[in-house]
Amino acid sequence: MSNTIIDSNFNFPGQKSVYKGKVRAVYSLENDRLVMVATDRLSAFDVVMPKGIPYKGQILNQIATKFMAQTEDIVPNWLTATPDPNVAVGELCDPFKVEMVIRGYMSGHAAREYKAGKRVLCGVAMPEGMKENDKFPEPIITPATKAEMGDHDEDISREDILKKGIVSEEDYIVLEDYTRKLFARGTEIAASRGLILVDTKYEFGKTKDGKIVLIDEIHTPDSSRYFYADGYEERQANNEAQKQLSKEFVRQWLIANNFQGLEGQTVPEMSDAYIESVSERYIELYENIMGEPFVKADVSNIQERIKNNVETFLAEN
């Protein structure tokens, strides 16, 4: 379990600053370049778990970068290179302060809100008579924004985004269009692999020349929820839980152990056996989502490997 990358304190040539998120560390370099390092940290309910998950960073980075390559014909993105299994290098962007969440099915947060009696989510009406995991008539966009205090995501409507000037209407129309196009492509790719893309989120930024591009991750199990298509209808008809590929299994384990990130709650003990099982689930996620075997990178010294690969890339480019 020790062969994971939990923190990263690199000092790359030309480095100007570093920002550390819940899972990734983003290094800003000269010449408007970013180096994004995907760690093995696991976040749930906006809380970072105390132990890393072997290969998780590699899995998330490779899913995200491969999906960017598969969608760059419809939406431009920030990515320019992947010099290491855990690293993406790209163009510095000014990120929009909203996450574009799109839902094809009434699952997760939407289902919890629906069960609580709400029929409007982020200003979007949800039909009466739905049950958990039913398909929406059309995918709905339910944006989220960061709370002013802390990293917690908050629901926000299109109307409030425009009224508060968080995004201009001209730009927001582009974000909505890109979100729907990416979700349609992701749905097609998932269907070709026997999966249903249930919901996901996209983040966008603007380059220094004003172009809107996709940034961060895309269609990963941390940002998306997938169901197995086989048996979906039967499970819905029988009111059974769907078999899914996402981080939801971690959330459910935490809920079962009395943790939802609320004040006064403590993260349950994660045994080595449990961490190994989570790692195996992430590998299963990769192989099903990407339709190819997962090749484990050398983890004998991840920090040194990343440092050498990135510095060699920067020296040559």
Short structural description:
This protein has eight helices and 18 strands. It is an alpha+beta fold and 317 residues long. The two termini are 34 Å apart.
Structural commentary:
- Helix 1 packs parallel to helix 7 (272-290).
- The two termini are 34 Å apart.
- A hairpin with a 5-residue loop joins strand 15 and strand 16 (212-215).
- The chain is globular and about 60 Å long.
- Helices cover 32% and strands 26% of the residues.
- With 317 residues, the chain is α+β, with helices and mostly antiparallel strands.
- Strands 8, 9, 12, 15, 16, 17 and 18 form a seven-stranded antiparallel sheet that branches. Strands 1-2-3-7-6 form a five-stranded antiparallel sheet.
- It contains eight helices and 18 strands.
- The chain has helices at residues 56-71, 108-115, 158-163, 169-192, 232-237, 248-256, 272-290, 302-316, and strands at 15-20, 24-29, 33-38, 43-44, 47-48, 79-84, 87-91, 94-95, 100-105, 120-121, 124-125, 135-141, 144-146, 153-155, 195-206, 212-215, 224-228, 244-245.
